[in-house]
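Comment thread on ticket #2218

A.B. wrote:
> Attaching the input chain for the structure job we discussed in standup.
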Amino acid sequence: MYLFNSLYGWYYWHHVKDNQKSITNLNMLGWSVLGNILVIIILLMYFMVSNYTKSAYPMLETLAVSISICAQFLSSRKKLPCWYFWFIADALFLYLMFIQ
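C.D. wrote:
> Ran it. Output below, let me know if you need it in another format.
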């Protein structure tokens, strides 16, 4: 997933012509769409992690990875809120490392 997102970001940053603008923020529609997509990713990933792995903390791991996926996508689209998502994901990953 991260490799696909990175390749997409590389393509978007170098080949999309309307991408000449600088880093931008999300509008209300963007936040709404991102929130809905994040919920869907969390639900699907939680189902997979809780049913197909032996995870000690399936919800925390699901949240950290789901937020990271959204952060990576926002980074590839040059959206400023990607940093909020990276900080939250990194904090969750650090907490997971600490408790395990």
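A.B. wrote:
> Thanks. Noting for the ticket: DSSP finds four helices and no strands in the chain.
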